[in-house]
DNA sequence: GATGAATGAGGATTCATTCAT
DNA sequence: AATGAATGAATCCTCATTCAT
């Protein structure tokens, strides 16, 4: 058991270990301020060795972004389907929140990238990105949200939820500092999930009370 | 008239012109990735000259942050007072939104700084920061929000509003790209303000229906 | 037939294919600026594999030089013998010119090496080099050149011919660019050979008118 | 007097001292194999300082090439004019030879550059290059060379002289090694000039016998 | 106050080479 | 004999900063 975990950890390819380290460093400092050397050091590798696995810093960054984004977009794509009950929505929120909690770098990567212009995110997420947004809007339109929110406000509503969910994690240090609760602790997460449920019920009144 | 504008522009202190340029560059790339040279170039100055006005990059950055944060915090401090009607709240939202719209770098500066750990923001905003948060919570507590939101959720509610308001501007490029409307155009702003009013009414039911 | 050619090409030893590729790359960029990786890539080989065939870049370079120089020196050695008629000289010139035309890298290798100091050429060609020069001078001395050229000018005359012949190929790109004729095309070669015949007749008046 | 010389030397701008050092290093190793660091070291400067004077290695190289080529091309342009006597030609040869002797790096720079493809030489020398070649051919055509050399051989004749003159200096180390005389010593130069006079008289029979 | 020049530290990346497989 | 991965040394260049002018 333990062995299996260790073996798995040890067996992680160097490529994967580089991606892990890079994800951390990029999430901490952003692409432009992240020294390749720091990434290499975190893997216990000579900087030159990175170039046996990735063509350059930029490519490494894009690989990190790709690896991080694909599962979220996939998850969202899977979640946003069919008839939805109030419980479905709550569970979807929980799932997304837990995903970000378990990939603590992801929210920061997204924020950094968006601040930088988001050109890469658009290119990399490419086919995924806009469909997911579109799907989200479709779901809102089909929900009782449509009673409260006119068509042209649906994008703002969607973006609002994104900011609420991702922002919570991207701003984790500030949250921690100001509110005194570790945002990714079980306690912090529970509170945030309950909070988001409440918000979603208020903004999108569920069909059956 | 035109002359006056030009004169004013020309007459701006070098120090102020540096701060302006620095604000732009820091907002675009973040402290770590922003070359001092870029700032100097934008002022039409030799990099060395910056050191006649600021002790170093770090100090310049803090001056930028200070100059940008002080008015918002002051504004918030002024807004969050006394008895509040629904109109007061809407006007407060409008005022804050318009402030961020007119200081388009501010939201990005805040996001970058928060991502970096927010240590400087805490130190610089120092005496201002937590009081404003505290005041915000007090206001919420005194409002009808208290009926819907238990004490321990008020911080999340406040943070939520921050994410909604600041995030909208920080993610401007993404917003523009995905929704096709310039987020700081009059049209974009009007929509966002109306949207925020609605959200605030739903989340914090105003006292007089 | 075609098969035979292909087979021959395929059957060339890896060592030979490396030498071919190295010759090209060294001729293009010179030893100092030629990346081992480029050579390997041209053979379709991993750079590490080169070290199964040559001890290092330097040794590879010397092997290339050796392989290229030996035949020319041998040829010159064979050509510069015995009684010589005007036709012998012309044919010698033709043979040398055609050799350089068929080994288009050779002239460049020699030039690069000479520019670099020629220490390796001296070491590698070793026993060959000076004897050939000496033989050339002997031939000139025995020819009617001796009537026009005093002993101490014979080396200059010999070096002059070398510069005329090798320089034509080493400067091929410039020649092509300025004169608009491909220097190694049949037309270019014919002209150059005729030109060299004329020069040799004028500088070294042939014995029998 | 002595002071004046020293002052002049000391007063040489840093830019000029960099150009001098770069010229040497580039002549020794060629652009691709010449480390910027070597150039800086020869000026007694930190490598980073070079970038206060030149945008990069490439630009520095082009400046070196430009500075070296302009005077030769100018000289040739001035020499190749009007009616020419045998003495004019001899003096022209002497002048060119002496110029190369005094700029001992120039011939090597030209050879390296030509080997590398000569694209820069074409671009830099730009308006100068081809006109000078054309002028050279015109002069040959107007001389008694025309009696011996048909139009289409004139370019080869011109290129031949270039190879004889420039090659002598570019191959200086080899010349020294093989013939035992320092090619740029007064003795070496005298011999080479006398040799070239003779060659020119034989290949281009002077008008007055 | 402004600048050109200088610099040490650090930036990403390339290079020739080694070694286990 | 071939290769993927690793590496120390170098490569070109950028950066923030200093200082004399």
Features:
12 helices; 0% strand; DNA-binding; Tetracycline Repressor, domain 2; homotetramer; disordered N terminus
Description:
4 copies of one chain form a homotetramer. With about 210 residues, chain A is mainly alpha-helical. The first copy, chain A, has a single domain (about 1-205), classed as Tetracycline Repressor, domain 2 (Orthogonal Bundle), CATH 1.10.357. The first copy, chain A, is about 75% helix and about 0% strand. Chain A has 12 helices and no strands. Chain A is globular, with a radius of gyration of 19 Å. The termini of chain A are far apart. At the A-B interface, helix 7, helix 8, helix 10, helix 11 and helix 12 of A face helix 7, helix 8, helix 10, helix 11 and helix 12 of B. The structure holds a DNA duplex (21 and 21 nucleotides).
Sequence-ordered SSE layout with sheet pairings:
The structure is a homotetramer of 209-residue chains.
Chain A: H1 2-11, H2 14-29, H3 36-43, H4 47-50, H5 57-79, H6 86-102, H7 106-115, H8 119-142, H9 145-148, H10 154-170, H11 172-179, H12 186-203
The structure holds a DNA duplex (21 and 21 nucleotides).
